[in-house]
Amino acid sequence: MIRLGVVASAAVLAGAGAVWAGETDCGEARLVWADVKDSGSAAAIQSFAEVYAECPIYSQLAREQLAEFNEGAPELEEVSAPKEETRRLLVTDLRNRPEPDPDDPPYEPDYSDGEYECLMAAAAPGQSPYFDGVEWADVDAENAMAICADLLLKDQNVDAEVVAAFGRALMKGGKLEMALEFSELAAMEGSGLAMNTLASLYNEGEIVPENDETAFGWYMAAADAGLSMGMHNVAYGYEHGDGVAPDIDRALEYYERAAYYGYGPSMVRLGVFHRDGTHVAQDMDRAVDYLERAADHGNVDAAVHLGLIYETGQNGYPKDIEKAVEYYFQAAEEDDVVALHNLGSLTYHGRDGVPHDTQAAFVLWGRAAELGHMASQRKFGRLLHEAGEIEGALKYYRLAAEQGDDVAKKLIREIEGD
After folding, report:
1. Which residue range forms the structural domain that includes residue 352?
2. 368 in a structural domain
3. Average pLDDT over residues 337-358
4. Do residues 134 and 123 make contact, with C-beta atoms less than 8 angstroms apart?
5. Which of 81, 114, 148 marks a domain boundary?
6. C-alpha angle 209/233/126, rounded to 5°?
7. How far apart, in whole angstroms, are the C-alpha atoms of residue 252 and residue 281?
8. Is the distance from CB of 259 to CB of 225 less than 8 angstroms?
9. Lesser CB count within 10 Å: N end or C end of the chain?
10. Count of domains in the chain?
């Protein structure tokens, strides 16, 4: 298990750039704070805040304690000296790691309860086979940051993947400078997730200069570290020429690698390629195989694609309305608007053996309408209109019309008499 030692762990917590600049020893700040915080001396705490002003967590703790001493008096002004631009970690700085010995017993991590709790809140899917990850959209940034920060302030010997997960939570929470610092340190210890986070930061260019080539280099490092998400991002780069010359063969190679490791978005991409005959020969059997594997991993996009294939018999594939409904329901449970809309249509019209159920359509179209789906807004409005709820109907017709629905515009004119 790769772990960060006492000094490195404290430096990460500081998040002040001291890891590379070497100007302020934030590891020392942690040790000093342990004595100063219980001293009862406002002068000592103020002096600490001035000396360690470049260590944000500890200087903030000091200011908060000073405010308590002063019973709500204005907090100590931050003391910050001009400093040179911090040198950022490069892919070439990463240490080469020895290949594992095939004769060694299988590695099994031994996470503490605190580490496991942090990983459950902030880790990414595919980050490790030893714990589940959380989809980006589902990360509760405030909760994840609180859980991981509490651990890191207490534990002086944490796993690099825990630090990487904290970096991911910080990025989701918009704490980009801290996300950069944490991710650099975890990347140096071999975390593929941390490398992938660094790539994303260079893609966005908010706190480091935007650089597609640097981002691609970090995605490749993440892929080399075994992160399936990194493999997918490398494939995307090769497919679209982002940070590297386009190369479809290499793109397919990396999509297939990520799919092999169970990465849903890569399975979906390959499924769509084979369905449409894009970059590969059209093969509906292979398309459905990739999409079903992705859906089995909980991928909502895959479930919607499968629903459409089985409902309409795309490209001559055998129709199967029961499977279509099954996959639509899987996606609808995750509030996918296309699945909600298509289920609503099936139940409203009673097509292909699906029982006619206006009330079910009302619920399904209503939910999709609330989520902003244009066609569902118009259809839900029409159901309200038929039920005599004119104001409600107008509300949803107008929402659809604002998105460019010409039929909704016509229905509004009919009601208002214009």
Report:
1. 347-418
2. yes
3. 95
4. yes
5. 81
6. 115
7. 13
8. no
9. C
10. 2
